[in-house]
Amino acid sequence: MFYEDRISVATPEGVTLEVTLAGVGSRFAAGLVDQLLRLALLAALLILQHVATGGSDVSGGAVAGVVVAVFLVQFGYDVLFETLASGRTPGKRWTGLRVVKAGGGPVGFVASALRNILRIVDSLPGFYLVGILSVLFTRNNQRLGDLAASTLVVRERRQRTTLPPVPPVAAEAAPRPEDGLWDVSGISAEEIATVRRFLDRRSTLAPEARERLAYEMATRLGPKVPGPSRRWDPEEFLEYLVSAKAARG
Amino acid sequence: MRARTTVDLHDVRIAGAVMLGAAALAPVLPGPDGVPCPLRGLTGVPCPLCGMTTSVTAAVHLDPLTALAATPAGVLAVVAAVALLAFRRWRRVTVPVWAFPAALAAMWTWQLVRLGVQ
Predict the structure, then answer these.
(1) Tens of pLDDT along A203-233?
(2) Residues 6+ positions from B80 with CB-CB distance below 8 Å
(3) Most exposed among A165, A167, B9, B60, judged by the fewest C-beta atoms under 10 Å?
(4) CA of A125 to nearest chain B CA: how many angstroms apart?
(5) pLDDT at A146
(6) Are B98 and B1 in contact (CB under 8 A)?
């Protein structure tokens, strides 16, 4: 029996990834850390403005400037970190959380902007009541912003999974596809297309998802290729598989 | 902007049902009419969702004029919630991303015009 919220995410590679959903507690802790950082940033900006203007500027323009700064820090902070740091604000990094798309992919600018603009609704009518109720009662622990942007907040694995170790292959022992040693006739065009798709988008995947997908695909396709393919690093195996198939037509 | 987002309606449908139930019970529940807005309480400036409690409650109790005066968004929310319950076959909906900030901006404009900055 699991005491964690685990759900399965179907990836385009046809491999199912298990992810652990973050709960209210860890998200609250992450939010608290982020809010403290935002306040520190705002305080620094205000002090800077005070110093720059000699503290005498109380015109409408100065007030408007403060309002804009507050909005940019409140909103931009999350979007910036989620987009550029693979779904992790400093608070989320500290609590081991990450924002991902519901399909398991990385959260982009549009999805991040959408989920964060809807904080306006989730934070109502105070203390994030709407957001907290939404996380508690929705299937995938989503607040309204997550529902709209189709995003999930997941917990990262604390320890590396124990994938079977891949022994290093001596360079001279490694068969090259161009040597013609690999019989890739057992691999269908569809399977190669799937591998190609994975190789194309692997740099956008979270490290553990990428590692797991490569491993699953290599384990599934490995037995269909006679030869010493079992000892390969999963991603290298997939790369050689694609080039071997291309060489053979 | 051509960016779109696909929203799974499962949880939205439940949220809509809860909203309708709460609005139906609202007049007989103790406490103030409507949820006090923290932004308006602190600064006097209404937020985009001001008027939603009044509007949704009035709409559920078939008082469209009061509902529309508070905010048309409440009437739309009630219509959407009823439609989601009526059409269970709708599983997900794809909408342009700009619809969300546009809706918030429109709702906020309505409140700023209605209540002004006090």
Answers:
(1) 777 777 888 888 888 888 887 777 655 567 8
(2) B16
(3) A165
(4) 6
(5) 92
(6) yes
Beta-bridge partners for B92:
B8
Cα four-point dihedral sign A118, A121, A127, A133: negative
B85 Cα to chain A: minimum distance (Å):
17
Nearest CA in chain B to A136: B11
By Cβ distance, the residue of B5, B8, B38 closest to A114 is B5
B41 Cβ neighbours under 8 A, 6+ residues apart: none
**Residue A184 touches partner B, C-beta closer than 8 Å:** no
Among the listed residues A128, A153, A225, A224, the one whose alpha carbon sits nearest the alpha carbon of residue A182: A225
Q: In which band, very low, low, confident or very high, does the pLDDT at A174 lie, cut at 50, 70 and 90?
A: low
Q: DSSP letter for B92, please.
A: E
Which candidate, A19, A26, A11, places its Cα nearest to that of A89? Answer: A26
Q: What is the pLDDT of residues B59-111, one digit of tens each?
A: 999 988 988 988 899 999 999 999 999 998 898 888 898 999 999 999 988 88
Percent of chain A at pLDDT above 70?
83
CB contact under 8 A, A102 and B101: no
For residue A16, give the 3-state DSSP assignment. strand
Does B100 contact A117 at a Cβ distance shorter than 8 Å?
yes
